[in-house]
Amino acid sequence: EEPWFKNLPLAEEKILIAMINLLDLTAREIDNRREVSLNRKLNRQIETFLFRDKILQAYIRNSDEESISRIFSLAEDVLDLDPKLIQSLKQEIVSRFPNFKFYGSGADVVLTSSSRNTFYTTERSFEEKRKALAYLHEVEVPKNSKEIATAREYGDLKENAEYKAAKERQDMLNNTAARWKEELERAQIIEPAEIDPTKIGFGITVTLNNLTTGKDERFTIMGPWESNPEKFILSHQSPFASELMNKKLGEELSFTINERSYNFKVVKLELADIHTIEPVPSTI
Questions:
Q1: Cβ pair 122, 188 in contact under 8 A
Q2: What is the spatial distance between Cα 21 and Cα 16, in angstroms, rounded to a whole number?
Q3: Backbone phi, psi, residue 205, to 5°
Q4: How many angstroms separate the CA atoms of 60 and 89, rounded?
Q5: Rounded CA separation 245/219 (Å)
Q6: What is the percentage of the chain residues whose pLDDT exceeds 70?
Q7: Which tens digits make up the pLDDT trace of 127-154?
Q8: End-to-end alpha-carbon separation of the chain, Å?
């Protein structure tokens, strides 16, 4: 219970690096079926210490950018670490260093709080997308591999319709997996406490008075994974919602989309119950 490690003649960064390395080591031992019970217990303890107790987040809030980069790079490479934990670190880093560079997939990726590449989502939607990706890898891809193997046995691949269809599906599965993985890396989870109720944005239900018709229109702004125009739930990335973003109560706004003009006045802002909004099902 006591922070005994603070009395050690070691820099905090070195202690955290050692803990992250242990987290990865225990995960790999579990993956290799070595002393699974012991390593799983140790893995949970280390994960709790680093992430659940927010030790890494606290370190990010008080350290320099170079040190944070070293810590984050190590954490990102830990085997089988929940993507939500990495995402929480990204959010913490971006809040301090908006132009922090994240390196991944062989490319230099810049994630900023206002980046057009970043989109907002709920934890529920993030988890649903993560499960969908896992199902694709664990069920759909192996199933497709068997289909390819079976079709190959028919011979004459040039005229083999089953083989061609299975290979086309393989390409589709690979493309979908790559897209979902990239989306998970770009997604930024928003909690209710982070929503600003004084302006239009993610998690806000806005009532607009249509200055042309005189009627009120009500919309809820969410992310692309929750967008449902039939229920007037709009993605903050959509052209219409983009025009509304950051507008405050009483403001009037005019804009044109696809040669159609809109004229509104913001008459009401409410916090949406974001936990009750259904994620859009992930389809292959």
A1: no
A2: 9
A3: -100, 120
A4: 8
A5: 12
A6: 90
A7: 999 999 999 999 999 999 998 888 877 7
A8: 48
